[in-house]
């Protein structure tokens, strides 16, 4: 299994954080072509990110780029010193 420990920089827009995860093109055969993946499916591919991320869109031209989002935190939700995206948010 290929483990992606640094899923990429997240950014915030319209009430959500967004992140694009690039997987090796050799893994394309493991990624569904016609539907979004559940959290269990993308975690089984070796993608490691903090709680709350959802695979929300298929980018057909580059299927090896997985698009994730999660809602902005409310009242301390997702607060954790070990949070995978602490300090990695680009506010655009």
Automatic annotation (TrEMBL):
The protein's assembly and partners: Forms a homohexamer that can probably bind six kinase subunits. Interacts with cdk-1.
InterPro entries membership: Cyclin-dep_kinase_reg-sub, Cyclin-dep_kinase_reg-sub_sf
The protein, known as: Cyclin-dependent kinases regulatory subunit
Function: Binds to the catalytic subunit of the cyclin dependent kinases and is essential for their biological function.
UniProt superkingdom: Eukaryota
Entry keyword set: Cell cycle, Cell division
One GO term (biological process): cell division
Family: Belongs to the CKS family.
Entry annotated with the keyword ATP-binding: no
PANTHER family: CYCLIN-DEPENDENT KINASES REGULATORY SUBUNIT/60S RIBOSOME SUBUNIT BIOGENESIS PROTEIN NIP7 (PTHR23415)
Gene Ontology MF annotations: cyclin-dependent protein serine/threonine kinase regulator activity
Coiled coil segments of this chain: none
Species name: Gongylonema pulchrum
């Amino acid at each position: 299994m290929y483990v992606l420990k640094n899923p990429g920089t997240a950014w915030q827009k319209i009430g959500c954080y967004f992140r694009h995860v690039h997987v090796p093109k050799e893994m394309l055969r493991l990624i569904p072509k016609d539907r979004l993946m559940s959290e269990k499916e993308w975690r089984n591919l070796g993608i490691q990110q903090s709680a709350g991320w959802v695979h929300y869109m298929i980018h057909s031209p580059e299927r090896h780029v997985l698009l994730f989002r999660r809602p902005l935190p409310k009242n301390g939700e997702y607060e954790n010193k070990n949070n995978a995206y602490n300090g990695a948010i680009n506010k655009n």
